[in-house]
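User: Predict structure, ligand magnesium ion.
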Amino acid sequence: EAATGLDGGLVRYDASLEQRLTQRATIAADLRRALTAGEFHLLYQPIVELPGGRMLGVESLVRWRQPDGRVVSPADFIPVAEDTGLIVELGAWILDTACAQTAAWRRAYGPDALRSVAVNVSARQLLDPALPEVVAAALARHGVPAAQLTIEITETAVFTGGRALATVHALSRLGVSIALDDFGTGHSSLGLLRTCPVDIIKVDKSFVDGLGGSPQQEAIAIALTGIADTMGLRTVAEGVETAEQARRLYELGYRQAQGFHFARPMPPAEIDAMLQQAQDRAAA
Ligand code: C2E
Ligand code: MG
Ligand code: MG
Ligand code: MG
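Assistant: Predicted complex:
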């Protein structure tokens, strides 16, 4: 049964919480086996130019396909992988796989076909002092220039400890781009822009959702593009689902976006098809 919480909202502490805890324990036990068994794969979601929608780069997003065919969302297993520490190993596999895929795209469509490939890195990975070496090794192994890789971090992750910030600086020195993901949803987004070597701000979907509404709802999206411009940072608007949002973003000065309106996360072969089309168009 659900009970009414202090705020009047529903707090579920019953069977569903128990189920969730059981699910979490099951996931923890399964993760290591899953990594060895090759049950993870990466999807890639295009990041596009506004207003035309031309693909500039992609973000890699991990998926877990269990033996029964069920695909588990990273929102369900990344936190567990963080708790158990397996994220360090899984994260290294993700970096290597994304770099291998980037190298394959470079070979097939030329070094400039994709400006960047982004990889998400979680808080626990940033606490690992070896992360910059892991990134550098993945780039070197596949012959991918650092400039083509973007590492996406969250402000919360950077605040987990002093070492996390030092790691971000070390990553930045490698020449990879640093993107602050879900920007504006953490506690100290703006302050972080002064201490953290940031190249790209990914404006969170919650601010994109408010576009076309009241000036109050649009205020943050407007302010963020102004700050980014002043600081010489690039912005990517996340979670763009409608043509109206895309149009409004362009009007406000946004030049890069990502979201279901343009493309969903897709298997690498579908990105291949898009790159092939772009190449055919350029040759025509
Ligand atoms: P994120 O990095 O902010 O990734 C964007 C998420 O929003 C993705 O969910 C993507 O599928 C979803 N999305 C993209 N466009 C839209 C849209 O228009 N509407 C809506 N409603 N959603 C959209 P996904 O793939 O489920 O990933 C969720 C989160 O899990 C990611 O958020 C990221 O924090 C984490 N994650 C995913 N892959 C990795 C990974 O390889 N490593 C780590 N450490 N974390 C990852
Ligand atoms: Mg991301
Ligand atoms: Mg994001
Ligand atoms: Mg997000």
